[in-house]
Structures are given as C-alpha cells and as structure tokens.
Amino acid sequence: MIRTRTLRAAALAGALGLTLSLAACGGSDGSGKASGGDGSGPEGKTIAFVGYGNESPWGAAYNKTFTAALKDSGVKINDLTSMDAGTQIQNFNQAVSQKPDLIVALVLDTQAAVVPIQKAKQAGVPVLLVDGRPDPSVEKDVMAVVSDNPKLGEYAAQNIIEGLKAQGRDSGNVIVLMGTKSMLVTQDRMEGFDKVMATAPEYKVIEEQDTNWDPTLSGKVAQQLFAKHGCDGVQAAYGMADYMALPIVQAAKQAGCKVGGDDGLVVTGGNCFKAGIDSIRAGELYGTATEDPITIAKQSADYIERYFSGKNPPQSELVPEERVTAANLDELADQCSQA
Amino acid sequence: MTTTDDEPRGQVAVAMPGAPAARGWRPDPLGVLLLVVVVALVPVAVTTDRFLTLDNARAILAATAFVGITAVGATLVMIAGSAVSMAASQTATVVAMVFLSTQDLGLSVALLLSLLCGIAITAVQGVVIGYWEANPIVLTIAAGFAIGGTATWLSGGTTVYAEDDAYDVLNSTVLGLPVAVYVLLVVALVAEWVLRRTTPGRQMFLVGENRGAARAAGLPVGRVIGVAWAFFGLCIAITGVFLASFNTSATVSLGGTLTLDAIAAVLVGGTAITGGRGSALRTLGGAVLISVIANLLLIRGYSTGAQILVKGVLVLVVVVLVHLRSTRGHR
C-alpha cells in the first residue's frame, strides 16, 4: 500500500516536473527570440484562435485574411473568436485545456487575460498575442505581434497640428473622443497623442471623453460638446477610430459648424476604414492612420509560419503604421478600404 | 388605461386613460419624484455655464431623437402588457444595413424597404407574443441573437456602405434642428393620438391592464398586441434609417445601447412595466429628461460613466415608485 502511494507520489512529481519543463520551453526563452517551434514547419500544427468576433468589421476582416493566409500552410485553426470579453476569456481557458501547438489571441480585456496566459505557461502551451500589447505582468510569457498604438496616437496629433497650422491658426481647442479608457490600446494611443500635442502648446486639448468605441455615443457626445463650446470654441477633433470621427463630422455639420477647408473644423480618425478614406476625399476628414486589419493579419500569419519553421522570430514584433492624409491617400486607399 | 386606485386588478376599467381618479386627489409618488428632480435640476442648470443656451437646447433634442423614436414605439408595447423588447438594437442595425445597401434603388425605395423590414421583423415577434402568449423577454432575447447572428452571417461582419449618398438629406437641419427631431415629435404625437383616440389604442390599455379579462370581454387580444409591435417596428426602423444616415455606414454593432436606452426612457416616462398605464408624450418627456441630465453632467465635466450611473439610478427609483403605485392601487 505504502509502495503504491510512493509510486503515485513519484509519478505525480514526475508529471509536475515534466509540465514545468515544458512550460519553461514554451514561449520566450528570455533571449528576445521566440522559441518552442520544433522547426518541422506549420504542416499539421493546431492553432487555437481566440480572436475578435466577426461582429466587429475589423475582426471580420482580420479573421478572413488571417485564415486565408494560413490556408495553404496545412495549419489547422480552431475558431474560438468572440466579441464578448467574458466569453473570450472562457474560450482562452478552453484553448489551454485543448493543448494546441499555439494559442493566437486578440484579447478584448488585457487584464482579464493575465490568468489564462499564466495557465497556458504552466501547461506549456505557447501564446501569440496580436494587436494590443500584453499586460506588463505577463509580457515575458508571450510572443506578440502588436500594433504600434503610441505611433497611431502620434499620427493623430500630427494630423491635427498640421491641419491647424495649414489654416494659419496660432491657437486652437481640441476635443478627443477616445475608445474604452481602461484598454491599453487607448492608453497607449493617448500617450502618443499627448506627447506630440505637447510640442504645440498653442493648441489645447479641452475635452477628453470615453465613448467606448461606440459610434452612436460618439455622435451624441460630440453634439453636446459643440453646444457646450460653440463652433468658435472647437477647432479640431480626434475620434480614435474613423467610425467615431465620422459622427463627429456629422454632429459638427448639424450644429452649424464648418468642417474642413480653410477655416473649418479639423477632424482626424484612426483604424482607417473605407468611409474614412471617402471622407478624406470629400475634404471633410483631415486624416487618419492605418492599423488596418489586413496588414496585421498577414504579418501575424507570417510570424506563425516563421515560428513553426524554427526561424525564431523576435519575441515581440511591431506592425508598421502609416499616417494617412490627402497627400498620400492614393497609396493607402486600397489598404484602408478592406473593412 | 387608467384605473382608479381602489379598482381590483381583475376588473376592466372604463375610465379613459389620463382621467382623474374617482376618489379624490392623492399625491402621485412618481409625479412627486419627477417634480423633485426637475426642481433640483433648476439651480444646477442655472449655475452651469452654457447650459441655458439655444445651441445646447438643440443639442439636447438632437441627442434625444434616435432613442426617443424607438422609446415612443416601445411605449405602446409596454402599455399593451408585453413588457419590453430586447431586440431593438439588432433590428435597428439590420434596418440600417438594408437602408444603405439599397440606396442604389433610390432613396424612396430604400426607405420603404427599410421600414417594411423593421415592421415585419418586429410584428412577427408581436404576433407570437399576442396569439401564442410567448414570454416577450425570452422571445426577444432569442430574436435578438437570431437577428444579430443573421446580420453577421449575411454581411460577413464587414461594414455596409451605400452606393449613393442621397440619404444625406436625412442629416439636414431645419431651423437649426436635425430632421430626426421633427420626426420624433411627429411620431410621439401620432402615438399619443393612436393611444387616446383610436380603438386599437384604447384596446392596448385594456389588454395591458388585464389580458384575461380583455379576452373574456371579446377583445382581439392577439391582433391588438400585434398592432402595438408593428408600430414599434416602424419606430425602430425609422431610428435605424437615421442611424445609418448619421454614421454613413453600418456595422453589426451600430445599434449599440439603443435597447436599454429606449427602455430607460419609457420607464422614466412613468409607463408601467406591467402594462395598462402610460403615455407616448410622457415617454418623450422621459427621453428628454435623461438627455438633459446626461448633458448637464457632460457640461460639468463628469465622465460618460457618471452619466450612465445617474441614468441607472433614476430608472431604478422610477421603476420602484411605479411598482409601489401599482401595488397600492390594486390592494
């Protein structure tokens, strides 16, 4: 009896040790390179894809491109996408228990994803985070292909400063309608935005409102901000995504404020969409920035192929972003019109 | 349908909606609450810079329009005893997609198809609730999933754009107010007229007050509820059309918080969630009151989170008071 117990305890300890060894092998090796791919190539590998749901146009475009890009590689993708933050975390936990070769995650709630990432590490399942950066507490436990969100914020500020200077203004008030404030994506963009706005102190940010990536709420809040400050009290506006910037344009027009041109409101967006491109062409939106789903989907698919082929890609890769204005619209219109 | 305070629930009252109670005046807790809220708002409003301006009044009305139109429709449904619909956002989104994707057929045709789409989707739910007595909350939650899922499936999640920008006429303003505000006023007046002056409207109060008694009295309960839901569908469709025009494109998440915002406006307007009592004009007042409070908080620098919190507390207090009034009235 005692012998049986001893054997069981030894087996348990062995399993624990094996698990810990596998955990140590997965993900980063601390050298700044992703390791753990066995170098045999992507053929036959399984990916648990905990992405954004197709309810989001950005998510839909990403999912379609990502899946298509990996189609010929022989990777099997288990779709666990969702636009509900709670469901997504459940799906992440489920993915860990399935023990795939790789979990690819685009998380809605960075903080809530910490525990599943730790579980994945313990289970020896490597995780690739895409789009938003990971929580700092698990930064070294995952691989990442992330959008350059600080740069996107910088581009928005550059658009505003350039637009106001082009109008010959030596002062001006700016309103900002941001995405969900608690998200790192939003915080990073605001950090970049504030950094560049600080270089032009003549232009002052007078309002920052969290409109939760909601176009309808953005329009409603913009209507009230134009009433609060009047057309003369707001010279520029930043809607963190094009679908938030365009309701600002409509709200301004309905409030009787001039938009664009030599002396109208300077509006800039982000996450470029076809509607934003059309609005730039129409002279209403001054500019936007990329973070388009197609580019990041292709880059993350390429990262996965390099990882499975044993090419040890860097632990974290930034997706290059572009500023979009009327000056380079033709070059980027296609890239921005996929969602 | 207004009942006297001492009237048992099982009896169908004959007093007209809004008629004074037969046993003399007693203070209405809901009325007292709304009076207190309005009185409390006055000093805050006076001391808030730029609140009492024409521009701000216009902004408040503009911010009320989309939710208000849907809320007016929801009033009829709630009066007819069907509680609430949880599928308004999804329906408005589908209508917005239909409206934009059919712009190449011409504005009138696109408008007609969109309104028919909203009416059809919602009236079907009303018929199931009216004739087969399905639980409206359960049914509309299921319908919301089905409608949203279908929209995602058919659109592939991609944004829907219009081939033509003729819809932009719906974003225009008349006397400084967006067209949607005038439509809201017309819809509210029509709904109030239907409720007070037409047979189906009066029957909605009777059915909402006591469905069993209404059926026993020979009223066409299923048809009455179906008409209320069809009108609601029309209102949702109008909202969807304006949402599409305002945003110039439609995604699956376009409807946002429309469902809950509309329910909040109806409840703050004092319509009983159990049915049989309410008014479209009071719903309009509820929608405006919520917008005024949100606007005040925004102007005074409070976050959108604070606005949502205050709205939630206000709805909760009103619902409790309406419930207390109902139970006291039926004791």
TrEMBL record, chain A:
InterPro entries (alphabetical): Peripla_BP_I (IPR028082), SBP_2_dom (IPR025997)
Subcellular location field: Cell envelope
UniProt main location, coarse: other
Database matches in CDD domains: PBP1_ABC_sugar_binding-like
Family annotation (PROSITE patterns): PROKAR_LIPOPROTEIN
Domain Periplasmic binding protein stretches: 47-311
Superkingdom, natural source: Bacteria
Protein keywords: Signal
One Pfam family it belongs to: Peripla_BP_4
Signal peptide from the UniProt entry: 1-23
Family the UniProt entry places it in: Belongs to the bacterial solute-binding protein 2 family.
Protein name, entry field: Substrate-binding domain-containing protein
TrEMBL record, chain B:
Organism, as annotated: Nocardioides conyzicola
Keyword Cell membrane: yes
Cell inner membrane recorded as keyword: yes
Superkingdom of this protein's organism: Bacteria
UniProt topology in membrane: Multi-pass membrane protein
Record's keyword terms, sorted: Cell inner membrane, Cell membrane, Membrane, Transmembrane, Transmembrane helix, Transport
Subcellular location: Cell membrane
Pfam families found in the cross-reference section: BPD_transp_2 (PF02653)
Protein name: ABC transporter permease
TM regions (residue ranges): 30-48, 60-85, 105-130, 137-155, 175-195, 224-246, 252-273, 280-299, 305-324
Principal subcellular localisation of the protein: membrane
PANTHER family noted in UniProt: ABC TRANSPORTER PERMEASE PROTEIN YPHD-RELATED, ABC TRANSPORTER PERMEASE PROTEIN YPHD-RELATED-RELATED
